[in-house]
Amino acid sequence: KQEDGPKVNDPRLVPDEFLQRTAKVVYILEKKHSRAATGFIKLLADRNSELFKRCAMFSPVDHRVPRVYVSLADCPPDFVTTPENYSNTLFICHIVDWKEDSNFATGQLAKSLGQAGEIEPETEGILTEYGVDFSDFPPEALECLPQSLPWVISPGELAKRRDLR
C-alpha cells in the first residue's frame, strides 16, 4: 500500500498474490461423470404439494452429486404406503436433466442394489458410479487362459523372472 503515491486501478500492475481469480462456466464441452449415483429414496416433506403426488427424493451417498427428483412410477409399488421399508435400501439413479433454475436434478431409478452396509451392493454401487464394467468375462476371453488346473509357471520361465513374493 502506497500512502503518498497514486492509486493503481490497472489489475495487470497488481501482484498475483493479491488477485482473486474468478470465472463463469459458459458451456460444458464433455461430460466426464457417468451421471449415475448410489443413494436412498424418501418421500418429499411437503405432503400437500403437487410434486409430492408425482415424485420422490433421491439422496446420493456422495455429497458432491445433487439430490434428484425421481418419478414415483420408478419407485417400488409399495414405496408410497410403506417408505420406512426402503429407508436402508440402496438404489442406482441416473441423472437425466438438471435445469438451471432448479436446485434439484431430475432422474430415473435404474436398479435396487440391496441393503446399505453389505459388501456386494456397496461395491456394485461404486463400480456403477465410476462406469466400471463388472460383468462376467465372455467365453472368448476365458478360452485363452490355461485350461489345465492347477496352472504353474514352468521352471525355465521362473528362472527368467524376478520373484516379488
TrEMBL record:
Keyword Nucleotide-binding assigned: no
Superkingdom assignment: Eukaryota
Gene Ontology biological process terms from the UniProt entry: miRNA catabolic process; mRNA catabolic process
A Pfam family of this chain: OB_Dis3
Molecular function (Gene Ontology), one example: poly(U) RNA binding
Coiled-coil ranges (or none): none
Keyword Amino-acid biosynthesis applies: no
Residue ranges constituting the CSD2 domain according to the UniProt record: 56-131
Keywords assigned by UniProt, alphabetized: Cytoplasm, Exonuclease, Hydrolase, Magnesium, Metal-binding, Nuclease, RNA-binding
Signal peptide location: none
Protein's cellular compartments: Cytoplasm
Primary subcellular site in the record, as a coarse category: cytoplasm
Record-level GO cellular component terms: P-body
The protein's name: DI3L2 exonuclease
Gene: Dis3l2_0
